[in-house]
């Protein structure tokens, strides 16, 4: 499965929800599929997209938050799984694209290439629903089910280690940051109104 | 335990006066009362971390979602969170209200705390993060409010150091 095809397949579920992505290929590909003001691309601070997603999920319990994580990033902050599992926000969906490599920095293999099982770690950390979805159909279905379930879910998806030709996005970091904050304010107002 | 319950209460009440709704923490001796107060307060979301760097992400998320937060950490926890402070909070102009217990400074008997005590302020200064010391009980409320105000106006982290004089009774 190509990650860009996966993003296209789940885009209808991403479009109107709060999305936080990691840096590099995931950010560039989601941006190409279609940027929305409710998408935030964490272009640095590897590992913290899920922590940001948790912060947003706790601060906006009436809204769904989807984190698009990667194996390299998650391996840098495995403690996030135990923290998410501790609070189990039902409005948080954590999707991990596992290409078994640090694609954006030379394609060196990560530990998932030699057997580390992120779904297993998520399960053992206490994440209530963990799904391994390695086809477009199962991924789309798992995402829809997770959003409908109001249960903290981690979905891991094996994808090929192929990324975009360029990581360029015509969106400055701070432009994204301020636009995203305003989008969240509007979503909150809309919900209250 | 000679951690000051009275001054911990002053700090907690000052955070409440700042409308802090989310607090992330990793336990350390000087912070025990503050963490218990957060735990017992139904209006506070206490997030117990595995490592302090997660707290930077949680506070960034809370800020973007329009909710005030604070981080409770030991200075060694601050040291563990430096990259996220640089490459999330400073990079993306995220205000952080960091309450840092200032271990390893004058009066410290635990030798293992002393290296962290020596480098805390120089590293904060190198990161251009303003520092308030809460030395006196009488200034706790005003200084915490002013720290939060500056963080939010400048969209920048601030560090409030909790020193031995305030936190420890012996």
Notes on the structure:
The complex is a heterodimer of chains A (193) and B (170). Chain A has 193 residues and is α/β, with parallel strands linked by helices. Chain A contains eight helices and eight strands; from the N terminus they run αβαβαβααβββαβαβα. Helices cover 46% and strands 18% of the residues of chain A. Chain A has a six-stranded parallel sheet, with helices on both faces. Chain A has a two-stranded antiparallel ribbon with strand order 5-6. In chain A, helix 2 (25-34) links the parallel strand 1 and strand 2. In chain A, helix 1 (3-14) packs across helix 2 and helix 1 (3-14) runs parallel beside helix 7 (136-149). Chain A is globular. By secondary structure, chain B is of the alpha/beta class. Chain B has one domain: Thiamin diphosphate (ThDP)-binding fold, Pyr/PP domains (Rossmann fold, 3-Layer(aba) Sandwich). Helices cover 48% and strands 17% of the residues of chain B. Chain B has eight helices and six strands; from the N terminus they run H-E-H-E-H-E-H-H-E-H-E-H-E-H. In chain B, strand 5, helix 7 (140-154) and strand 6 form a beta-alpha-beta unit. In chain B, helix 1 (5-17) packs across helix 2 (32-40) and helix 1 (5-17) runs parallel beside helix 7. The longest helix of chain B has 15 residues, at 140-154. The radius of gyration of chain B is 14 Å and the shape is globular. Chain A binds chain B through residues 20, 40, 42-45, 47-60, 77, 79-80, 82-83, 86-87, 173-174, 177, 180-181, 184-185, 188, and chain B through 21-22, 45, 47-51, 53-67, 69, 83-84, 87-88, 91-93.
| Beta-strand content bin of chain A | 15-25%
- By CATH, the superfamily of chain B comes out as Thiamin diphosphate (ThDP)-binding fold, Pyr/PP domains
Approximate helicity band of chain A: 40-55%
CATH class of chain B, named: Alpha Beta
Mean pLDDT of chain B: 97
């Amino acid at each position: 499965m190509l990650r860009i095809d996966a993003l296209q397949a789940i885009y209808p579920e991403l479009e109107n929800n709060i999305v936080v992505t990691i840096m590099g290929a995931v950010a560039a590909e989601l941006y190409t599929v279609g940027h929305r003001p409710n998408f935030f691309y964490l272009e640095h601070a590897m590992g913290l997209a899920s922590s940001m997603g948790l912060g947003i999920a706790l601060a906006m319990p009436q809204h769904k938050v989807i984190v698009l994580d990667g194996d390299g990033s998650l391996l840098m902050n495995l403690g996030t799984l135990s923290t998410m599992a501790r609070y189990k926000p039902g409005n948080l969906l954590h999707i991990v694209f596992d290409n078994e490599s640090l694609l954006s920095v030379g394609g060196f293999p990560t530990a998932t290439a030699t057997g580390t099982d992120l779904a297993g770690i998520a399960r053992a950390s206490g994440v209530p629903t963990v799904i391994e979805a390695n086809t477009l159909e199962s991924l789309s279905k798992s995402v829809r089910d997770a959003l409908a379930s109001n249960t903290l879910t981690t979905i891991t998806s094996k994808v090929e280690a192929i990324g975009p030709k360029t990581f360029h996005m015509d969106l400055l970091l701070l432009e994204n940051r301020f636009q995203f904050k305003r989008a969240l304010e509007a979503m909150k107002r809309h919900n209250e109104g | 335990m000679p951690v000051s319950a009275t001054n911990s209460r002053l700090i907690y009440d000052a955070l409440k006066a700042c409308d802090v709704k989310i607090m992330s923490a990793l336990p350390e001796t000087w912070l025990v009362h503050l963490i218990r107060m957060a735990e017992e307060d139904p209006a506070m979301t206490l997030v117990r971390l595995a490592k302090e760097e997660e707290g930077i992400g949680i506070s960034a998320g809370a800020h973007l979602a329009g909710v005030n937060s604070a981080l409770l950490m030991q200075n060694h926890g601050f040291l563990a969170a430096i990259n996220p402070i640089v490459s999330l909070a400073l990079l993306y102009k995220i205000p952080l209200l960091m309450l840092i217990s200032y271990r390893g400074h004058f009066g410290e008997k635990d030798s293992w705390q002393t290296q962290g005590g020596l480098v805390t302020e120089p590293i904060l200064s190198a990161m251009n993060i303003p520092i308030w010391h809460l030395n006196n009980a009488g200034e706790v409320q005003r200084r915490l409010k002013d720290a939060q105000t500056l963080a939010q106006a400048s969209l920048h982290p601030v560090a409030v150091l909790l020193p031995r004089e305030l936190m420890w009774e012996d």
